[in-house]
Amino acid sequence: MPQMRVSNSPNQECALTNCAFLSDADHSLLGPGGDVYVEMGGYVLTARADRRVEPGCVALNSIHRGMLSVSNGASIAVDVFSPSAAEKAGAAMVVFEVDYVLRQRESGREIDAGELSKAFLARFALQYVTVNQPVVAEWQGDNLKLTATSLEVIPLGQDTAKGARRGMLGPQTQLQLRPAAQSPIKLTGAAVEEAAKTNIFRSDWSFEAMGIGGLDQEFSDIFRRAFASRIFPVSPRVWTGMMLHGPPGTGKTLIARQIGKMLNGKEPKVVNGPEVLSKFVGQAEENVRKLFAEAEAEYESRGDDSDLHIIIFDEIDSICKQRGMQRSDAGVGDTVVNQLLSKIDGVHSLNNILVIGMTNRLDMIDAALLRPGRLEVQVEISLPDEHGRHQILSIHTAKMRENKYLSPDVSLEELAAETKNFSGAEIEGLVRSATSWAFGREVTVENVKKGAKAENLLVTRPDFDRALAGPPPCSRILEYGGSLPRLKETMSVLIQQLRASSRTSLLSVVFEGAAGAGKTALAAHMALTSTFPFRVATPCALRLGVHEAAKAAQIKSVFDDAHRSELSVVILDDLERLLDYARIGPRFSNVVLQTLLTCIKQPPKKKGGKLLVLESLELLDAFNVKLSVEPLDAPSVLRALGQLGVTNAAELQPILGSLATGVPIKKLLLVLEMAMTADRRVDPARFTETLQHAGILG
């Protein structure tokens, strides 16, 4: 590895040959007559002899010296290059970024990429080019710098190999040219179009490396609708915006960030919605204009050859609410929406921008922002299915598997099946929680000072079981007979029919009966035994002094969440309280009533989704099925007493024989609690007295 001293190229003509020059004596030592390939700093140059070069020196032009990070007079190792079999076959395709060596003009000239490619290959034939290597070429009086960004080689007897770093230019090489970032040059011709098709996406991206799983269909929609027009320019207008919406924790922000990383363009600008606002008048609108200033300047100078500028608005609902709906901000929100609309789809619209908005409240966004030409590509990022959950688990446990920290008894397929309705963030939290249980076994008070050994760490299935563990479901119900078996059988048939049917996607069932008859308990029991992954009941807080609009919004939110799951159960408990119903008057909330009627009759939006609505009480006409929950008769009360462990149930039979009406299950439980002794016997006298006080026994 001889060390040689760096010097300048003999003259300007030599500097434009992309060659290194040696003295006659040094050149003869490296090889016989003719050109010799030498390697310096990972780059390969053609070495030629020139009598003007001093012995012990290697003459390089300024571009080569910058490429190798050396100055005149510095020493550098020069080795004879021995190409591999793949490198001998030559380069099949090379992508170059074109720029001026010295940018002395604001607006560049138009250059025919096809003609430039032909001249470049003729001038630099049989020379090697390496990724990131700049090559200086003279073109019609201007010195251009072409920097190789990627290439493909053709190994002998094999197909094209991608990902190579070096190849020889030859007649078989195809060049694809594109302007460098911020370059004023405008390229025309077929070579530019091919480069645009190839280079919109980075060559080294993958979903797994990006940490995204479970969103195959969503990415398919994004590519088809947002990027197809950029890859195949069949229309003068391209998609300039998209809106990602869905529940929290499903990966909206992650997708937006990673979309910017997988595209060849400027670094994405990520803006949190509230950051746009300001206490100064007009500053919020100025902040919006600044976000688009760089894209506007480049589009003015380079036109359609501009790089792609990505602007990401997180929590966009905070600045783009419906116009005319706010009275307390002096119209600031309205003017921000107006400014954003004018930048995305105004008189001077831009084709080099991609605006991505993210929200979990799509209903709050101004309708004008979602029209064609603006953020018209709307993709719902919903909860992952079982296949998606398996992908997410694989991503978050990849490091464990790589370092042998994951026990063989952990089955990701089983975990994916057990984590129904988990969002991506919740699955990540599950993995962290299981890891913390494994840490807890290894880190104790005794060994904390000595230091726990990483090789002893192993995350096992019991760790995941602990992370998944929650309060056990209270699904037990007293089998007291009477109408209960019939009700349960009817509900089981209805649930199975809804699950299996390809035509029925919505089933609503109402339980009606006397107060305390067990309607809510039966609805909850059937929801639990249905094994539907999404089960939700209307929150009790809706009944506590909440005004009508808030109740309607929360009810709609419950049904929206249910529609995101493939199989969902919604329980509307104590409907009279939701409606503020009063028998005297009568009085009720019409706003809440209309919201309920609309939501109950609206089928699921998700393809293949099934929704079961269980309701305890009225609004009978809105439901498909009406099931009456009757109070317990005397035989049913005896069976219930036996299941509750009452040891002297037979002694109570004469008392139950004199019942004038049925006994609601809730009142029966209250009476037994008051009359039962410590040995689980029921005092007959106390039992009779309690039934009388409850109004059941005359």
Structure explained in plain terms:
By secondary structure, the protein is an alpha/beta fold. The chain has 6 domains: 3-80, Barwin-like endoglucanases (Beta Barrel), CATH 2.40.40.20; 85-199, Vcp-like ATPase, Chain A, domain 2; 207-377, Rossmann fold (3-Layer(aba) Sandwich), CATH 3.40.50; 386-468, Helicase, Ruva Protein, domain 3 (Orthogonal Bundle), CATH 1.10.8; 484-628, Rossmann fold (3-Layer(aba) Sandwich), CATH 3.40.50.300; 634-693. A 7-stranded mixed β-sheet has the order 6-1-5-2-4-3-7. Strands 8, 11, 12, 13 and 15 form a 5-stranded mixed β-sheet that branches. The protein has a 5-stranded parallel β-sheet with strand order 18-19-20-17-21, with helices on both faces. A hairpin with a 2-residue loop joins strand 3 (36-40) and strand 4 (43-49). Helix 12 (386-396) packs across helix 15 (424-442) and helix 19 (548-563) runs parallel beside helix 21 (590-601). The longest helix has 20 residues, at 283-302. The model is unreliable at 156-160, 193-198 and 470-476 (pLDDT under 50).
